[in-house]
Amino acid sequence: MTLHGKHALITGSSRGIGRGIAKKLAESGVKIAVHYYQDEDAAKRTLAEVRKLGSDGFLVQADVMHPEQISNMFKKVETEFGKLDIFVSNARPEIPAFFQGPLDITLEQWDAAVDSQAKAFLIGVREAIPLLADGGRVFALTYAEGSRTGGLQPWVGMGAAKAAVESLVRYFAVALAKRGITVNAISPGWTEDSVLNTLPEEAQALIRNWHGRGWTPMGRLGTPQDVGNVVALFCTDQAAWITGQVIYADGGASLMNPEVPTEIQLG
Question: Which CATH architecture group holds 7-252+260-264?
Answer without folding.
Answer: 3-Layer(aba) Sandwich (3.40)
